[in-house]
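Figure 6 in text form: structure in, sequence out.
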């Protein structure tokens, strides 16, 4: 499911496809681009490069659908490798595509390439198809995982080449009648617009924007990441935006214009339209070029989720010991 909204943003146009590509992140002189119907996340994943602000996930399409190159460059390597999986009789093969852009390498995962070494790629050009690997939670969207590396170090899992996040001053872009948040609690109320066995998507009209990305905010920062409502392996999320003020939730690390927050310091509760608590794993917040949505995650695959048309409220507050 993709939702499109025309907003002012840095973009390039692929003349052959007539599709708009927008800026997702930069690193030195490399611009990482994404389709305008994509969603972008820097901190929703638990893997190493996301801990250092050195990776971006660009989500769109579906598993098996075409993926577009985020850069202009030359393919220098393609590999496949086995990933961890909790399923005893299932093998999850993932793929790596390395694209040389000047003196640096753009490393792309989760796409099975259909291009050869030596192929010249243009930004926005199809180069393979999305795959689901053992790195994915069942509720993940199909996406490209992208890092920038030096030529001698593009295979190692760890990266510390920090990306520049194009997130500026965040302002409220409320289109509904939601009440003002209190200083220590943030509420998001909206309607379920999509529901399946893996997740439900909530459209809350009270969202925020920096003029480039749209999302949901606490104070002056857009939320980026999964926040659990109970114990979960994902233990931190990000707050992004340029602000002189400190985040409302205590951060343990600052990376450029982003702050990492331990989810153990935040209480997240989810309620139905009659204010009854829902027993869910948590909520996932990411950044959208178009209309933002919040993803609700069940405790286990196939367990009950709110259905289309249901109203849901998400409440966040600082955890009091």
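Output sequence:
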């Amino acid at each position: 499911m993709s939702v499109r909204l025309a907003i002012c943003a840095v973009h390039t146009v692929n003349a052959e496809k007539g599709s708009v590509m927008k800026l997702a992140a930069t690193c030195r002189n490399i611009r990482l681009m994404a389709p305008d119907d994509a969603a972008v996340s820097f901190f929703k994943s638990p893997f190493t490069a996301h801990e250092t602000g050195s990776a971006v996930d660009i989500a769109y399409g579906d598993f098996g659908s075409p993926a577009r190159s985020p850069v202009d460059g030359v393919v220098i390597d393609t590999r496949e490798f086995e990933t961890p999986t909790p399923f005893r009789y299932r093998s999850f093969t993932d793929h790596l595509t390395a694209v040389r852009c000047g003196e640096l390498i753009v490393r792309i995962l989760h796409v099975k390439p259909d291009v050869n070494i030596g192929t010249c790629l243009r930004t926005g050009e199809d180069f393979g198809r999305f795959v689901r690997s053992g790195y994915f939670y069942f509720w993940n969207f199909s996406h490209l995982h992208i890092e920038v590396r030096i030529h001698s170090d593009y295979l190692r899992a760890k990266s510390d080449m920090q990306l520049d996040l194009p997130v500026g001053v965040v302002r409220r872009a409320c289109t509904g009648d939601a009440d003002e948040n209190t200083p220590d609690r943030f509420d998001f109320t909206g309607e379920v617009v999509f529901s399946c066995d893996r997740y439900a998507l909530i459209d809350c009209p009270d969202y925020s924007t920096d003029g480039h990305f749209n999302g949901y905010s606490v104070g002056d920062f857009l939320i980026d990441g999964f926040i659990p409502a109970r114990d979960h392996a994902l233990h931190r999320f990000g707050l992004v935006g340029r602000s002189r003020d400190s985040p409302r939730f205590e951060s343990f690390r600052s990376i450029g214009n982003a702050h990492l927050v331990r989810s153990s310091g935040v209480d997240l509760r989810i309620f139905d339209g009659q204010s009854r608590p829902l027993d869910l794993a948590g909520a996932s917040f990411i950044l959208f070029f178009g209309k933002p949505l919040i993803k609700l995650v069940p405790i286990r695959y196939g367990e009950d989720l709110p259905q289309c048309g249901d109203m849901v409220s998400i409440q966040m507050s600082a955890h009091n010991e």
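Caption detail: The chain has a mean pLDDT of 89.
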